Amino acid sequence: MRKKSGSITGKILFDALKLWIILLVVSIFLASSSLWSQRAQPANCVGGTLNAPIRLEVFSDFQCPACRAFYLDVILPAIEEYGRRGKICVLYHELPLQAHQYSHKAAGYSIAAQRIGRKQWLAVMDRLYRTQALWALDGNIDGALESVISASDLEKIRKIAAEPSIKTDIERAIELGDKREVESTPTVFVTTGRNTQKVDRILPYQVWKDYFDNIIQ
User: Fold this and answer.
1) Which of 108, 119, 156, 204 is most enclosed, with most CB atoms within 10 A?
2) pLDDT mean for each 10 residues of the chain (217 residues)
3) CA–CA distance, 107 with 95 (Å, rounded to integer)
4) Structural domain of residue 70, as residue ranges?
């Protein structure tokens, strides 16, 4: 009887050890998956998650009135309604047009802010679009940002924006737009699964919403 009891005890210990190993492996996998997800999140993600079923790649110009309207009337509501639920990912690409006098400067400030931090970048982007009518008159972007960016961060942004690498990043962004045959702003590439569609005309938010709802269902 003692021998049998010892056998049972050994089996219990063995099963407990197996369970502990399984839990350890699962916890390591989940932790690594979470870390990978954070690293996979691109710097130009305005909102949502990269593994969302719908991805919008937006090519936009800060001095473009239609881009401003698209940002305020489509991007922000889409992020609020779908991005927070992990249903959409919005990726932003700078595409300053030659026709706009200060669009390159605005793009430079945006990229510079992005290098400092996501919080600063989103604040700069939002402010540039909301105050477009003001800084577009004289290029006083610093004045437009003073109310939403700290003096120290604004000084950092100003210095970074003057670096040659910023001009290089803008040129690369323009090259990407040319490669993808973007002829006007805003232009949006909508990817669902393996399908990508190019949208280069202005559509009201309700049209986008109906499309999103149809995909998500």
Assistant:
1) 108
2) 51 58 45 38 86 97 98 98 96 96 98 96 98 98 97 98 97 97 97 96 96 94
3) 8
4) 45-216
